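Lab notebook, bench 4. The sequencing result for the construct came back, and we need a structural model before the next group meeting so we can plan mutations. Quick request posted to the team channel:

Model the 3D structure of this chain.
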Amino acid sequence: MVALFFGTGNQTPQVASAVIARVFLDPDLRLFDYCPHRLLNSVPDMFAFPVLQHVFTTIAARSPYQLHCGRRLMRVERGPQGVTATDAQGVK
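Done. Here's the predicted structure in token form:
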């Protein structure tokens, strides 16, 4: 989660625990409300990025490909004609 919140990638082990603690515990600087059971108690307000559902919906609408959600992927085949995905029911 540190890599996600701070964009640190492979350098995540170098992030000081004091910085992480301030993000959750400092009353003036915290970005999220800390929950000891679930880490984040509520969905934080998104202020830096647009709502991701809108982003992905726009990408899917402009794409020449078919996008299916909620289907279990069983196989991906790559060939000279492109990539084919097959779901659990055998539908490509």
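The chain has three helices and four strands.
Will bring this to the meeting.
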